[in-house]
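Notes from the 1:1 (GR / supervisor)

We went over the backlog. Supervisor wanted to see one worked example end to end before approving the batch request, so GR pasted a single chain during the call. The sequence is below; no edits were made to it. Supervisor asked that the structure be written out right there so they could see what the output format looks like.
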Amino acid sequence: MSISSYIAGLNLPFSNAQLLNGLACGATVGAFYFALPTSAVREAADREAGKIAHMPPGRQGEIITLTHTLGLLGPALVFTIGLPLNRFETPDWLLRFTLPPASSSNAYYGLRFAGVVGALGCGAGIAWTTKALAAQWHFIGVRERPKLVKTGPYAIVRHPMYSFGILMDLVSAVMYWNWIPLAGAALTTVAFAIKIPMEEKLILNKKGLGDAYKQYRREVPSCIIPYIW
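Structure output shown during the call:
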């Protein structure tokens, strides 16, 4: 089955698969557009809270940050580059990683569209988290003038940005109906499991902040998933 899209008076036929893939790519680009902090946000953070003053020893922080970035950006780039280059048809090499068939065509289309909505929601969630962090935003490390953030999503879990990151990979698997984002989710989850103790150790060792963070951990015991992790 195919449906027609009328653009600028032209009758351009697109298959359902092309339209779904186009929506998915648009949602991915939109989610990352909302999620990535602008240069103004980074500059304001440096100005108000100072530069990053405390980092994990060696290059541990950089390596683990690069690892989870690969888990998030890797699948996104695979689809947002691979699909447009093939006129939004799924190329044969990507079809090898297709999820098992849904119970019905309605379920398939409904789940994929729900994935599109979920991806946009994840982008909005990361933007919400960035807004809550304000001047304390950073990839890893403690700033010169640190302040404990306990409002917004930080009142629910201690690392909400990581929650939305993992969720983005999971909904992408449904949105693209493909196993590749699940591999990204696995890599990202392992990276976060390593990174969280590194980050929290830096905070706990920071004079004037450690005791407040201990109390915060008692108030908000979950790192990423409420009542589970």
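Supervisor's comment: The radius of gyration is 20 Å.
Batch request approved.
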